[in-house]
Amino acid sequence: FLYRHIHSQHHRLVVPYTIGALYNHSFEGLLLDTLGGALSFLVSGMTARTAVIFFCFAVIKTVDDHSGLWLPGNIFHLFFQNNTAYHDVHHQLQGLKYNYSQPFFSIWDRLLGTHMPYHLVKLPEGGFEARLKKD
Question: What sections of the protein cross the membrane (predicted)?
Answer without folding.
Answer: 38-60
